[in-house]
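Notes from the 1:1 (GR / supervisor)

We went over the backlog. Supervisor wanted to see one worked example end to end before approving the batch request, so GR pasted a single chain during the call. The sequence is below; no edits were made to it. Supervisor asked that the structure be written out right there so they could see what the output format looks like.
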Amino acid sequence: MTAHPVQRQARAVRLGPRSSLALLLTSAIGVAAFGWPLLADPTSQAGTHAQDAPWLFAGLLVLLVGVVAATISESGLGPKAVAMLGVLAATGAALRPVGAGTAGIEPMFFLMVLSGRVLGPGFGFVLGSVTMFASALLTGGVGPWMPFQMLAMGWFTMGAGLLPGPDRLRGRGELALLAVYGFLAAFAYGTVMNLAGWPFMDAQASNVAFDPADTLPANLARFVAYCLATSLGWDLGRAVVTVVLTLTLGATLLKALRRATRRAAFETPVTFEPK
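Structure output shown during the call:
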């Protein structure tokens, strides 16, 4: 029996050292932007800015995500990849309102997972961020939460591109891997977005709101209670829908995305023959 060589999966974007560094720095600042309520010292002056900090971080994240997108674009986001990005981002933005207001039924997450898997982490980060931006414009969901959504979805989609076995793992094993990732990442997305909105709550109005004068264990307990009370149903619905769509439609969509990637030949340079 002759062994067939493994065909390396083409990537729409190859992350270089500069784009990787920009992405790493942005992610580090993003972690601080999401997690500052749990990291701030109760005795510091941070508590006096509990209502201002989300706005400050929102403005900062817009700039940082833009810098990362520009850096990745400069490192190799060619016209074919831009066309693919436009199609997938438009599709994701159109899918997001489907089921809106109904127990977290958001089929867009399924598309993001599979797109990130096929097209790689660099393309995945840009796709997730652009899709959330386009979706916000489409649905009127523009606000201080939008940059947080862009970064969180960029992480979500990039993570799918970092999963093991992109060149070898196929079939049911790959679908199972993507389903597990989609389930966990759907909860992770909801949790980090809760961190973005939690400081806006008035501590005097609710016993699950962020209290800048309280200790870390107490605020952590408040945050867990906040997640259970406000978003558990949405996160569970999002996770279940992502798993169901991945297991039922994933094989077909993966095949279509890989076929489109091969035909686009992203890694083949465009040349012009002289007349």
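Supervisor's comment: DSSP finds nine helices and no strands in the chain.
Batch request approved.
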